Amino acid sequence: MWNHAPSGNFNSTNSSSTIDLESSLAMSSDNEAYLYAAFEHPIPLVPNIRMESTALTHDGTASGVTFNGVGGLTGASTISLDSIDTVLYWRILDNWVNVDLGLAMRKYDGEFTVGTQTRTISESIPLAYAAAQFDLPFTGLSVGGDYNYVSLSGNRINDIRIRLLYEMGIIGFEGGIRNYSVKLDDADGVNVDMSFDGVFLGVFLHF
Prior knowledge:
Elements: E1 2-12, E2 19-20, E3 30-32, E4 34-39, E5 48-54, E6 57-67, E7 70-94, E8 97-114, E9 117-136, E10 141-152, E11 155-168, E12 171-187, E13 190-205
Antiparallel strand pairs: 1-2, 1-3, 1-13, 4-5, 5-7, 6-7, 7-8, 8-9, 9-10, 10-11, 11-12, 12-13
């Protein structure tokens, strides 16, 4: 579960005015689920794979804003920017310090509703992926993080997580912070420049 606070703005490409998530739509922090699974193997040169699904939705209220070429919009408003990551990575260091490097493809499915106007987006963006984890011997505790980044063709994604993990047999617990910013240039007629920051807590199985 990730508690994320929104900031930034978006607009349709046929409108010159931007819509601020906080001041224009009164959006505040919310909780969303994330799910992931990773498969690692000992075969040289063949990448490991990780899949992750992240839900990202905020509700607010518009009051006299312009979107999709229509002005004076009021009423219930929602943004969603759900994503699925497919990551292929190689473990270049594997002992009490683990280091992974790879490439990811992030598939966005989003919907932006302001009053009576709605636009949907579907966009796939490649990312560089890096992760590291430091195991504290004989404690079950680890400190780790992962980083996804791209700046390409007007799109920019900067996504970093820092976590503390505790494993007890096959059951593990994690908690940390995630700072996530996304800039999309003309994604199906929508410009996006938003950030979502907050803490997360999770439970996992490690076989």
